[in-house]
Structure formats: structure tokens, C-alpha cells
Design goal:
Number of strands of chain B: 12
Helix content of chain B: 25-40%
Oligomer: heterodimer
Order of helices and strands of chain B: EEEHEEHEHHHHHEHEHEEHHEE
Strand content of chain A: under 5%
Structural class of chain B: alpha/beta
Number of strands of chain A: 0
Structural class of chain A: mainly alpha
Shape of chain A: globular
């Protein structure tokens, strides 16, 4: 089958799955809502609790889930292609721990700066992720022709450990209330209750996905190894830089919206590769769509399994993802 | 003609790996670069491939310095075959071979019928077409190397514009095969001519696969006019395969000429520090028999 046809099939198939999930998810929850009442605009919004639940609580949450799921899954694909390691995740290179440190600082020191109407915690989280990216990138660039993926990996892992230590350090002196807020943030949660964070992240997401689209074929070539990719006519250094920066941007945006929700970036790329094969031109769009559907579905579980208590979705993805990761490890001989 | 004139290169500037090497590979030639480990063979290949640039001297392709050619233009003229290829993901043989067409496509262009026909043709010419849908990782060492050679051939394959048009005008086959019969693309020798640079292509293979790959290279060279540069420390392979050989030691050329001219006991002692006797086998081929170790460099 030609690639065009496989591409159309893949996008339509995964697109339908995502579409249906997004359609159904906001209707499910501990409080039953009536879809006709939601869209009955003759009732004033202030009196229409069904519409309030739908438009203020569930719809932004579903959209956040879809956005974050798509970003983590696609960023996972790109990081795995860049590092030529199928076990890499969007968190491997320290981006999310940098974001976490930013968030923890903002919570513990009660920062109240707001940019573009966004409160301090997400702003600090995004700034933290950018700082982590800058440090890791500078280390991998230094004393190397191009970008050294070995240094990238080691620097990322080291920065993860270092930022974690900083988080513990800040937490040690923080009040119990702040420690609790931090812990909740670290669990990953999609309860954003507003459209503002999504709107603000549109530019970062647009840039990241545009670069991903260009990267699909270079990532295929990188799979051969940098030297071979180079002799096939690929500018390896440029592709590696683009991959690292765009995937980091996507990860930073996703962590800023939903916190460090684990395992999406590894489960989804793997399942997708099993279904459509390794060609990144199919894997990237499929992973983004499937990641969106998967995280929204996990969030429905998180919202309903112990209703009326709503679990942070990060707990659900980790409980599915941990065993899945181990299964992968064993399956790969 | 691919040639390097007096090239110097060091990964660290003060420690040159190549010191003024001159080599030329004519169109359709078959040249072997011989030398012990660490003599600079791989580095010389990298310079010839344009993936590294000399610090002194110049590498030219048909008179034009490589540094002035775009990455894509270079990749369409010559392809590198590494000693081993390890893939990060489970691509099929056809997908790996298609990666050779990268330099022929625009940033968002999808490979068309002519690219598919080229890949089928090069897989057929390396005897790997039947493996097309197999995962690359499941192949034997020899099969992998043949597929990588097919990829390299697909990379330097130039489909002339009329052929390309003809291919794309062919309506899709209703049976499901979307590409035309590769045989309708039988190409002229000048269309296929390009340079393959192979870095110790047989070093990690056992004897059977070594012979298989050597025979394939000889056939591609003779039947399709592909120019081949091969780096190796296998004197027997070079002696039986190459039209000309270049012996290098410590980044300097020790001898250059036909295998008969260059592979003399004196030169072998100079380069490898091994005493050899040269015997003629019943088949007419020359065989080097090592008889002892001496100091490299002594005459």
C-alpha cells in the first residue's frame, strides 16, 4: 500500500477514535448532565447547572487532556527518534523536572507575577522547563561538533536528579499547605477550570507541531545512525537541534498545563508503532491523536472511579504505565 | 573523477590523522584503501564522502570542490556503506532501502512510483528483493550488508526526467500493486553511475558472507559501472577485487598502484610490519602468506 493511502487511513482511523472520545468524555462524570439542557440556550447560563458543569468544568478539562496527551505522545516519539532509544520519554532530558522546580518555587514563595493573565505557577513551570532545556542543550553543544546525544542523555539524567534535589530542598522549608499543593501539582492534574492556559499555549504548540511535521522524515534517517544519515543527505546537526528544541517546547507546554503526567510519552508511541510500523510520518500523527484519546479516557476513569472523589490523572497513567513499561522491557528480549 | 589532493586532517588539530594524502578514483573505477587499524582509512573515506572537510588540501568531484556542493547534491552522487548498520526501530528492508531516496525528495514530498521502482530494482540487483517485507533486524549479517548496498545504490540512482514522467504516468495496477514493473525502467549505465564508498564492508562478516559481498561489488562495478572505493585491512579481498590499491600508514601514502604493483613483500612489511611470501595459487590469484612479524616501517 502506498504511503499516501496508509497516511490517510491512519489519520482517519485514529482521528475517529479521538473524535468519539472527545465527544463522549464531557458527558461522563459523577454528576449526570442532560445534553439537551446543556445546549438549551433559552435557560440563562447562571441558572443552567448542566451547562455550567459542561462548559466550565468538563469541556476545558477534556480539551486540556487532549492537548497534553497529544503533546506528550508526540514529544515522546521525537525524543525516542533523537536518542535512537525506544525507552526514552519526554521526561528523560530534564525538561519536566525543570518545570516542576519552577512550579515548586512559585508555590513555596507565593509568587504572584502573572503573564498574559496566567497565574504564577504555570508561568514559573514553563520558565523552569526552558531553563532546563537551555542548560542541557548548552552542555551537549560544548566541545562537540554538532549535538552529542550521549552528553544530552547524561546531562538530562543528571539535571533530573539535581532538580529533584532542589525540589526536596525547597520543600523541606515549606509549610505543610505548600507541600501539599506541590505534591498535588507533581501528581499531574487536568482540572484547569478555564480556557486561559490552553489559549496561552497555542503558539508554543503550533511551533512544536510544525517542526514535528518537518522532522518526520529526518527522524526516519536518524534511525540509521548519525553518520549514515549524514551521508544520505540529511543535515544531522540541524535535525537533532530541531528535534531537541521542539520536543522540549512541547513537553514544557504540556507540563505547564497538566503537570508531569507520566508514561503517556512511552506507552502511546509503542502501541502506535505496533499498529502502524516505525515510519515517523505515520507514527507522529497517530501518536498525537491516540495520545489525546488515551489521556482523555484515563481522565474519565480518574474522575469517576472513586466518585465523588476525583483522582489526579497522573496516578491512573502511572498505574497503567508502570507495568506496561516493564512488559516492554521484557518483550524486547 | 573523485579525488583528494594533498589532504591533511585531524580530529584534534595538533594531531593529524591524514598527512598529505592524494588519491583519485576515476568514474567507474574500483579502488581499495589498505592499511592497519588506525592508519586513517576511515577518515580518508569520510573526507572523500564530504562528511568531514580537510584542513589542508582539497577533495573534488569532477573538478568541483566538495565543500562547494550542497549536502543533497553530494548525496545524489555518492553513498557510504558503513561496516555495520544498527537500526533504532524495526523498519522493513523496503523502508530502509527507501531511505536512500531522501536526497531526491523535497522536505514534504512522498516517494513516488519511480522511487519505488528504483528501490525494487536495486534490491533485485543485490539479490534481496525477496526480503523486501522482512524486518531489517531479522536478516543475517550478509543480507543486511547487501540491503545497505542496495540503499546506497538507490541513493545514487538517477532517474532521467523522461523515465520519471513515464513512471508517474503509468496508471496504478488494479491488482493492488501501485508501482509499475521495475523492468520497464531498465536504466542506461550513465544513469546508474555513481560512487559507493564502503568502510570495511566485510570486516564483521564470516567467510561465506565476505565472498558474497565481494562478488556483489564486483558485479555492480562491471555491469553497472558504479565506481567503488573500499577501505579494508583484508589484503586478499583487496588483491582479488580492486583495480588499484592505496597503502597507507600513519596517515601517509606508502604505495599506490595496481594490486600487483603495490602489494609487494617490501610494502606489506613497511605498512603492517609483517613478512610475507607471495605465492601464485592454481587459480592464477596471488596469495600472501604471512611468515613472521617485523617492525613496521623497516624496509
Amino acid at each position: 500500500m502506498s504511503l499516501q493511502r496508509r497516511f490517510v487511513r491512519t489519520v482517519l482511523g485514529f482521528g475517529a477514535l479521538t473524535f468519539v472520545t472527545l465527544l463522549l468524555a464531557p458527558l461522563v462524570g459523577p454528576t449526570p448532565i442532560d445534553i439537551r439542557r446543556v445546549f438549551d440556550f433559552s435557560i440563562p447560563f447562571a441558572d443552567n447547572t448542566d451547562a455550567q458543569i459542561f462548559f466550565i468544568a468538563r469541556l476545558p478539562r477534556t480539551l486540556a487532556g487532549a492537548t497534553v496527551g497529544a503533546l506528550f505522545a508526540a514529544a515522546g516519539v521525537v525524543f525516542q527518534g533523537l536518542l535512537r532509544n525506544a525507552l526514552a520519554t519526554p521526561f528523560t532530558l530534564g525538561v519536566s523536572t525543570g518545570a516542576a522546580l519552577g512550579a515548586v518555587l512559585a508555590i513555596s514563595f507565593n509568587w504572584s507575577i502573572a503573564v498574559l493573565g496566567i497565574s504564577a505557577v504555570p508561568v514559573a513551570a514553563f520558565a523552569g522547563s526552558l531553563a532546563a532545556v537551555a542548560i542541557v542543550y548548552a552542555l551537549a553543544q560544548a566541545r562537540h561538533r554538532g549535538l552529542s546525544t550521549t552528553v544530552l542523555l547524561l546531562a538530562g539524567v543528571t539535571m533530573n536528579a539535581f532538580f529533584s534535589a532542589m525540589i526536596l530542598f525547597v520543600q523541606y522549608f515549606a509549610s505543610f499547605a505548600d507541600v501539599y499543593r506541590t505534591l498535588r501539582w507533581l501528581m499531574g492534574d487536568l482540572d484547569i477550570s478555564s480556557y486561559q492556559p490552553l489559549v496561552a499555549s497555542v503558539p508554543a504548540i503550533a511551533i512544536a507541531f510544525a517542526v514535528f511535521a518537518w522532522l518526520a522524515r529526518p527522524l526516519n534517517l536518524l534511525s540509521l545512525g548519525p553518520e549514515s544519515a549524514d551521508s544520505r543527505g540529511l543535515d544531522v546537526t540541524r535535525a537533532q537541534r530541531a528535534a531537541f528544541l521542539s520536543a522540549s517546547l512541547a513537553t514544557g507546554a504540556a507540563v505547564t498545563i497538566g503537570g508531569p503526567i507520566g508514561f503517556i510519552g512511552i506507552i502511546i508511541p509503542h502501541l502506535v508503532r505496533l499498529l502502524v510500523g516505525p515510519d515517523h510520518r505515520l507514527v507522529l500523527p497517530a501518536a498525537a491523536l491516540f495520545g489525546a484519546a488515551f489521556l482523555v479516557a484515563c481522565d474519565v476513569v480518574a474522575r469517576t472511579i472513586f466518585a465523588p472523589v476525583e483522582l489526579p490523572v497522573g496516578i491512573i497513567t502511572a498505574m497503567i504505565g508502570g507495568p506496561f513499561f516493564l512488559w516492554l522491557l521484557i518483550r524486547r528480549r | 573523477m573523485l579525488s583528494a589532493a594533498g589532504v591533511w586532517f585531524g580530529y584534534v588539530e595538533e594531531k593529524p590523522v591524514l598527512r598529505g594524502v592524494t588519491i583519485s578514483v576515476p568514474r567507474g573505477g574500483l579502488v581499495g584503501i589498505l592499511g592497519p587499524n588506525g592508519s586513517g582509512k576511515t577518515t580518508l573515506l569520510r573526507l572523500l564522502a564530504g562528511t568531514r572537510h580537510p584542513q589542508r588540501g582539497v577533495v573534488t568531484l569532477d573538478g568541483a570542490p566538495l565543500s562547494g556542493l550542497s549536502r543533497g547534491a553530494l548525496a545524489r552522487r555518492m553513498a557510504v556503506v558503513p561496516q555495520e548498520t544498527q537500526l533504532a526501530f524495526d523498519y522493513t528492508v523496503a523502508e530502509v532501502a527507501m531511505m536512500g531516496r531522501y536526497a531526491h525528495l523535497g522536505p514534504f514530498e512522498i516517494e513516488g512510483p519511480s522511487d519505488i521502482a528504483v528501490v525494487d530494482e536495486t534490491l533485485a540487483s543485490t539479490g534481496t528483493l525477496h526480503l523486501k517485507d522482512r524486518p531489517f533486524a531479522t536478516l543475517s549479517g550478509g543480507e543486511k550488508q547487501r540491503v545497505v548496498i542496495a540503499t546506497a545504490l538507490a541513493q545514487v540512482f538517477r532517474v532521467s526526467s523522461s523515465l520519471r514522467l513515464k513512471a508517474e504516468a503509468t496508471p496504478p495496477d488494479p491488482t493492488g500493486a501501485t508501482h509499475p514493473d521495475p523492468c520497464s525502467f531498465r536504466l542506461q549505465p550513465e544513469d546508474a553511475a555513481g560512487y559507493l564508498l564502503l568502510d570495511e564492508p566485510t570486516a564483521s562478516l564470516d567467510l561465506g558472507y565476505q565472498l558474497e559481498v565481494a562478488a556483489l561489488l564486483k558485479r555492480l562495478h562491471e555491469e553497472r559501472g558504479v565506481a567503488i572505493v573500499i577501505s579494508t585491512h583484508d589484503l586478499a579481498l583487496a588483491g582479488s577485487l580492486c583495480e588499484r590499491v592505496l597503502l597507507i600508514r600513519d596517515g601517509e601514502v606508502v604505495a599506490e598502484g595496481t594490486a600487483d604493483e603495490a602489494l609487494t613483500p617490501a610494502n606489506v612489511r613497511k605498512v603492517y610490519g609483517v613478512d610475507v611470501d607471495i605465492v601464485r595459487h592454481a587459480s592464477g590469484r596471488r596469495v600472501l602468506v604471512p611468515t613472521g612479524r617485523s617492525e613496521p616501517g623497516s624496509a
